[in-house]
Amino acid sequence: MQELSVRHLLGIKEITPADIQLIFETADNFxxxxxxxxxxxxxxxxxxxxxxxxxxSTRTRLSFELAQKRLSADIVNFSAxxxxxxxxxxxxxxxxxxxxxxxxMIVMRHASAGAPHFLSKHIKANVVNAGxxxxxxxxxxxxxxxxxxxxxxEVAGKKIAIIGDILHSxxxxxxxxxxxxxxxxxxxxxxxxxxxxxxxALGVKVxxxxxxxxxxxxxxxxxRIQLERQQMKYFPSLREYTLYYGIDKKLLDSLNKExxxxxxxxxNRGVELSSDAADSQQAIILNQVENGVAIRxxxxxxxASRV
Amino acid sequence: xxxRLIVSxxxxxxxxxxxxxxxxxxxxxxxxxxxxxxxxxGIFVAERLQKILQRIVGSPIRTGRLDIxxxxxxxxxxxxxxxxxxxxxxxxxxxxxxxxxxxxxYTGRSVRAALDAMIAYGRPQxxxxxxxxxxxxxxxxxxxxxxxxxxVNSLSSQRVLVEWRTPETSExxxxxxxxxxxx
Lengths: 307, 183
What we know:
Chain A contains eleven helices and nine strands. By secondary structure, chain A is of the alpha/beta class.
């Protein structure tokens, strides 16, 4: 019997390739569960999970909540807006108060990088990172890699280009770690102002020309321009970004091969990805969303055995 | 560790033939009946029975695989987490007569989990249980088999091992294994 090498899922950096494979194999079984007439199993019926979101989220939060409900866990939802955090309560006090209500696991999203790592050192409950600032978003990277594996058979040996706002993206960093651990080649592509200066130290190729990146890759993971995180102007205008880095069907059709298009959502339609590209047969964006529930079920199930 | 042969290769073949005949007696041509082998070891019994039944009945017997991992009651009560196996049920069980098949009936907890898992696929008309070995006086739950290969009396410290033919071994055997304390 295998088990995860970690008690918390804080980031992809902390887990092993064997952990990722175990999560994938477990998620395969949960995908089957999600296609049953009754999409619910009683595995976590004695577990209480708190979803602690200090930042806005739609997809991730819904996906985690659905995964928890499918596993029969009891859940409590906490969002920072309208909470005691606004009255000056610290993160640790907030979480300890939630834990005092006999909560076993914490799924947390926070604007500060390292917040879940800090928390994991101070509390007994298992912590799942649902995104921490511009640092990591491990479950998104797992579902992305799982979707590639599902579409192309395996991740090893595949060429994946991550295109767009790499600088502000937690998805990009987690994806780089996950894909490299699974044996894929990774390239990042975007305006030089949106690429971290020493990104090549992570062992990724760097490309400034989107067409060259698309010609090189098997899969393009297109990222959103994160205007909410940008403290200054990184490019003259959205129109100019779209002109140089936007991907549309015409560009995809002009390539000499058919590549897979991914996007972690939400899409800025007409900016990084046109509607005809996002809705094309090449896009697996909705498959990613579906796989998100199975992956999160797998993560919660495997971590729950260590509660 | 001591191994005692409780069902030999020859006896096991006879046992499977008998169980198949008993099933035919109640299910006739299997037009309204399906077999579900319980993962992980019940599937081998189900596959053997399917072959014998198809030979006798002369028509395909609908056989599936049911994984019970996510429905077990000992998750987080074991040293190791439970790894799931694939569930493969390519037919509707609604209003069908379902025969659950496992290799060994011991505490009854696996069968309880199987009933729970099966309900996710519909409401069967009737459910029966077939086991190769029934470990008597060991039940934690009020569950009994409809069809039994052989009943054995065993201690809780013992284990029943059903060994199926592989490229390395030419025989099917059922063993009673007793762990011996090393002095």
